[in-house]
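ENTRY TYPE: paired fold submission
RECORD: A
CONTENT: sequence, then structure tokens
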Amino acid sequence: MLLVRGAVKAYDWGLVDGLARWSESTGEPQAELWFGVHPGGPSPLLDGNWRPTGEHLGDRFDVEAIPLLVKLLAAAKPLSVQVHPRRHVAADQYALQREDEPVIYTDPFEKTEMLIALEDFEAFAGWRAVDQSIAFLEAIEGTLLAVRSLRTGTLADAIRVLLELGTPERIASLPEAARVASLPDEQVAAYATVADLYPDDAGALLTPLLDYLRLAPGEAVYVPAGVPHSYIRGTGLEVMSSSDNVVRLGLTSKPVHVDHAIAALVPDLRPQVLRTSHGDLIWPIDSPFVVRVLRAGEEKILSGSYRIVLLIEGAASVESVNAETSLREGTAAVMDARDPDALVRADGLVAIIQSTER
């Protein structure tokens, strides 16, 4: 059993000091806190007094032993419209990259993820019903070609056309078009946020194609690789396979790779929305992980798979025949498949994540 803290990622969409309660104050946007071995942000190891040892989790284990990446996320504004490639696409494209070219694929692995809301959380995830997208786009001047593509089922063509049509005037019309399409007020407000924050980003015009959802604390959305999404705002817990492959279509200052993103899409695949609450076992269909966010009490976690226990609020301890440790908020106990059974005791809010791939 090892004790770690998270590695802070300061992306521009993050909330200023949004993760400080689990790390430290920087006075800058804090977007993600990573718990894992991914080379983009391996977790620092701590000693029994919660002091850094100078090592990282990646110094002890590779991605095969630690197959999951866990994050705390604080979004102050919409993240990029993005898609994660499936395993065969990621592996093939990663192998084809040349050293003298910009990096698109950071690793050869699939990134399948789940976001569990720690507070009210808004997101675009998956495709909106086609008739709704058409009604929305018909309220935006000059989008007839995109509408025709949607009617004929040529989604890739619709995406390319909308990116060509993404002028500031059309982007500014998003909230009014949402009203004309009779979308609820909370969705109109979400599109107003997109228009205000990304007035010159052509990818904003893709958001009418995406479904909107709001999660209450404890509820989750599971996003398989191949499903487009853009988290809008809120604080949440992310659990994913250990990959940072992100191919973007818009709402970002980072590079956009339209052809790669379209190739990574799986149009018939849908996200799973899990209307749960804290304490429920969250195990999406075909997921490589299972999660319980425990408010209080005890939970036994069995040997034979990778396990991470992350303290979000309050107090918690983890005990096995070989070791015992107490956690501070923003620290986690990590156990690989060879470590023995462990007992988690919680008085607050603790996330228990286990790999389902043995």
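RECORD: B
CONTENT: sequence, then structure tokens
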Amino acid sequence: MSIDTDFLRKYASEELIAIKMMDRMDLDRRSFNFMERQRHFRNYVRHWMAAIELLKPDCVISPVMPHRVFDYTLYLLCQWHHIPYVFFDHTPLSNRFIAMDNVMNIGDLFQKEYQSFIKEEHPEAFVSQDIKDKITKLRGDYKSAEPEYMKKQAIANKRSSSYFGKFSRLASKVLKKGDYYLGKEGVFIVGLDNYYKREDRRIEDGKYPFVRFARKKLQAQKYMKRLRVYYESKTSDIPENEKFVIYFMHYQPEATTCPAANIYVDQQLCIDTLLRNLPSDYKVYVKEHPSQFAARMEGNTSRMSMLYDDLAKNKRVRLVSLTKDSFSLIEKASAVATGTGTVGFEAMVREKPVIIFGFSWYENYDKGVLRIMDSASASKINSFIENYSYDEHALMAYLAAVDKGTKKAYYYQAVGKDALQLSEDECVENIIDSLNSKFHFSD
């Protein structure tokens, strides 16, 4: 099927976002070039165009924001054809989620409720106890407030870093799926199904012989170890009484920046934007995300040492060691900046102004959050920081609005199922209610 050139023209910048998404498919950062990536994206366009024409869907529903090239391409074509593409976005508030249809912003979500609750004398009375408990924890020390996923990731990373752990997991898989690994069509003989691009084959023919794939993964882990050491070599001590904004980097590749931050998927651009719009006596501190170097993740596909070189040579930038406590950095900072991260919410409740560069459930909190979309909004950064005044009443009103405007459910890989203690039927009902309330779907 031929591609409509008007579609490509309208979504030219989104095509670049899709091409950036393919970083995760390039294990060694040099096996999947631009031409191959563009071909892959446009083939998906053709395939989904044919599927839409054949199936004529009234709506597409996804458990997560589209952030792989296959679902992001479908999302773009749904926009082109005015077909609702509904996805769920989670918050860090006890598995509360929102139903959305746009990866760029949350629209006027929570606004009406926020304006209503801000008129209340005690808006905190409308905030559930579990949210209040979360706030109390975030106002304590980082060790007690560290997200559960980060704790689990640290444990998994230790296991993945040891050869014994790798061998144990492989042996377990072989025992459970004998023929899958050992049969004539098994991964040891034919190759492992995965989405990584081999340097000597087309993306469609991507089966990796097991030994070759294992070698690639080991090389990737060694690269991340070297990169972490290199990053730390570029960090510096933090002087007393220095004015700074702290930018917490995102792990990449991931939906939180691609597509949620759009053009600001380039995190160096976020830092440049801060530097350009802050007075010269301000510095920008930058702390890398610890997951970027995690053995079980794909951070090797989205970082190179030159990024740290470029940042470190700027006299107004300080790279901060991963060992530095994030909460103490928030306390000392004049403001906190992030792409779309949970650290922004942590800063909100710790009484700091927050600058974000992408889609987030808290972006409409006008008393403490500035969303950067373009040069005009970026020009407000300094006045936003200088005029900021913490407002507990407004924060409670916004959280009351979020409390009222969200539902609880586990839905994607059953994340949070044990802690949530909801039945499957209750989760299904909450998901349906969320869809109905936002999009007014008929029975």
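NOTES ON RECORD B: The chain has a mean pLDDT of 90. The first helix runs from residue 5 to 10.
STATUS: closed
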